[in-house]
Amino acid sequence: MSDAKQGWLAFALKTLISSGPDALTIDRLCARKKVTKGSFYHHFKNRQAFIDALMTYWYEQATTRLIAIADTQPCPLTRLERLDEAIAATDIEAELHIRAWALKDASIQHHLCTIDTQRQHYLKTCYLELGLDQTRAEHLATTSYASFLGLQQLYPRLSVQDCLALSSQQAKTQLKELL
């Protein structure tokens, strides 16, 4: 992906965070970026291609990249700890806005389904390697992931580090009980 296209996508995520999904129209993005529509169309065929590219970009930044960082560790428990460290070191603010957007947009729901499935599969794989059976690994992956997502929804807002610490503590407690 070209630097210019990546710049568009990073700009769009910042715009989503600051102004919501309604600001992600071609006209509004070009006006905010102070460029012509030709600049947009040079990188994206249409708005849906842009949205798909944006979600792919976010998936690569907030899922694939973080899993790759965790996968540098040989032990599944260490991989899970490294994953938490990588998440804590990443700006995940866009996550909340994308999830809110998905409530109104089926194409975003589709992307989130893919992303959530991938993330839970990764957790499940780690739990399987730690010795849980298929069903228990799947259940723990679902509950630990849901715990992390749910903690991010609380007000007053918890830091990402606190969300990770609490969801990790809950998962480790369940893991000990299940092994």
UniProtKB/TrEMBL annotation:
Residue ranges the UniProt entry marks as DNA-binding: 25-44
Claim: GTP-binding is one of the keywords in the record: no
Keyword check for DNA-binding: yes
A Pfam family that the UniProt record links to this protein: TetR_N
Keywords for the protein's UniProt record, in alphabetical order: DNA-binding
GO MF annotation: an example: DNA binding
Gene3D superfamilies on file: Tetracycline Repressor, domain 2 (1.10.357.10)
InterPro entries in alphabetical order: Homeodomain-like_sf, HTH_TetR
Signal peptide (UniProt feature, chain positions): none
Domain of life according to the entry: Bacteria
Protein name per the record: Transcriptional regulator
